[in-house]
Amino acid sequence: MKLMEQFTDEDFKRTMVGAIRLMGVAAIVVSPLLWWKLGWQSALLFLVGALISGSGLWEWLRLMTAVMARMDMGGTARPMGMILVGFFLRLGLTVVVLYVSLKTLDGSVFALAGGLALGVFALSVEGLRLMKAWTV
């Protein structure tokens, strides 16, 4: 049985990459169903939400990897300026993409919310997988 103190950087990376992969598969499976049921605009809004959520997970992975490397190396780590600039640029781009997609696409806002929630779902599934692996 693994304890929380034994949670490594590799466990974190594996969990995040697994969540991103699960999001991609779920988006590929769900978007044609939404297209068939609600139309292409809703399917595209769902994909926009999933893309935003996936890019958020990827950016979080980059940011936390840099923070963990900085903590492991002490004060000799590279400056985090570029990573933080990328993080805030992605955040600004997200606001623009959300605004433009909601203004131009006449689809279901719930489909967009579902795409955004896909990241939380994928992280929850990967977290449960990790907990199951630790209890075995």
Q: Could you characterize the architecture of this molecule?
A:
It is a single chain. The chain is mainly alpha-helical. The chain has one domain (8-135). It is 85% helix and 0% strand. The longest helix is centred in the middle third of the chain and has 34 residues, at 40-73. Its main location: membrane. This is ATP synthase I chain. It is found in: Cell membrane.
CA-based gyration radius:
17 Å
Order of helices and strands: HHHH
Q: Segments where pLDDT lies below 50 for 5+ residues?
A: none
Report the total helices: 4
Spatial separation of the terminal alpha carbons: 6 Å
Structural class: mainly alpha
Number of domains: 1
Strand portion: under 5%
| Mean of residue pLDDT values | 87
Helix proportion of residues, in percent?
Answer: over 70%
Shape: flat
| Major β-sheet profile | none
* Overall number of strands: 0
Organism: Granulicella pectinivorans
Main location: membrane
Membrane topology: Multi-pass membrane protein
Protein name: ATP synthase I chain
Write the layout of secondary structure elements.
Blueprint: H1 9-38, H2 40-73, H3 81-104, H4 109-135
Gist of the model:
By secondary structure, this protein is mainly alpha-helical. It has helices at 9-38, 40-73, 81-104, 109-135.
Short key terms for the protein model shown above:
single chain; 136 residues; mainly alpha; 4 helices
